[in-house]
Write a structure and sequence with these properties.
alpha+beta; Glutaredoxin; Glutathione S-transferase Yfyf (Class Pi), Chain A, domain 2; 2 domains; single chain; 218 residues
C-alpha cells in the first residue's frame, strides 16, 4: 500500500490520511511529490489523479480524496471512528463540514508548518470561519463528555478520523495570530503533542522548498 502526498509543510489534504494511518499503525509506503513543480502534472498522473493524496493498493486500486481514503481504511479498521454510534455519526458530520466548508479560512490562512503566530489581516468571512470551527470543536468535546467516554482530550474523547481531519486547522490556528478560546488552545496542545502530528510538523519544518502563495503573514 502506498500513500502519495505533497509537501508536508503545506499540503493539508495530504496530512489528514498520513496522520491517521501513522496514529493507528496502518502500514504504508510514502511517496512524496513536490507540489506545482514543472513535472507535477506528469508525476501525479502516474497515480491516476490530478491531486494528492492518493492511496494506491493492489486490490483496491487508486483512491483519491482524503475522506474517501479514510472511509476506505475504516472499512478494515472500524476503530478509526468512535465506537459509540452517536459519536461516530457526529464525527462523520464534523468531517463532512470540514471537507466542504470553512472556505474562507482555508483560502486566507494556508497551512504552513513553519509559521507561528504570524500577523495576518483576514476578512470577516474568515473570522466567522475561525469562530465557527471552534464552536464545532466545543460541541464535539461537550458530547464526548456528556456520554462519559474515555477522554484523552480529543474531539470525541479518543483520537479518531475526525481529529486527523482537523489537524491542519490546528496548524493554521497555531500559525496565525487569530483569537482562540482556552478550550480550543487545550485541544490544540493535545493535538500538537500527538506523535503522528508532531512527526508531520517536524518533517514539514525541515523542508526547504517554499511556495510563495502559502507564505502569508509576517
Amino acid at each position: 500500500m502506498q500513500l502519495v502526498i505533497g509537501n508536508k509543510k503545506y499540503s493539508s489534504w495530504s496530512m489528514r490520511p498520513w496522520v491517521a494511518m501513522q496514529h493507528f499503525g496502518v502500514a504504508f509506503d510514502e511517496v512524496q511529490l513536490g507540489l506545482f513543480t514543472d513535472t507535477w502534472a506528469e508525476d501525479i498522473a502516474q497515480y491516476g489523479s490530478r491531486t494528492v493524496p492518493v492511496l494506491v493498493d493492489e486490490q483496491l486500486g487508486s483512491i483519491t480524496d482524503s475522506l474517501a481514503i479514510l472511509e476506505t481504511l475504516a472499512d478494515f479498521a472500524p476503530h478509526m471512528w468512535p465506537t459509540r454510534a452517536k459519536l461516530r455519526a457526529q464525527a462523520r458530520s464534523a468531517c463532512a463540514q470540514m471537507h466542504s466548508g470553512f472556505i474562507a479560512m482555508r483560502s486566507e490562512m494556508p497551512m504552513n508548518c513553519s509559521a507561528h503566530q504570524r500577523q495576518l489581516g483576514i476578512t470577516e468571512a474568515c473570522a466567522i470561519d475561525v469562530a465557527a470551527v471552534q464552536i464545532l470543536w466545543q460541541q464535539c468535546r461537550d458530547l464526548a463528555l456528556e456520554l462519559d467516554v474515555p477522554d484523552h482530550g480529543y474531539l470525541f474523547g479518543e483520537f479518531s478520523i475526525a481529529d486527523a481531519f482537523f489537524a491542519p486547522v490546528v496548524i493554521r490556528l497555531n500559525a496565525y495570530a487569530v483569537p482562540t478560546s482556552e478550550a480550543s488552545q487545550a485541544y490544540m496542545q493535545t493535538m500538537l503533542a500527538n506523535p503522528a502530528i508532531a512527526a508531520w510538523v517536524a518533517a514539514g519544518q525541515a523542508e526547504t522548498t517554499l511556495l510563495a502563495e502559502d507564505e502569508v503573514g509576517h
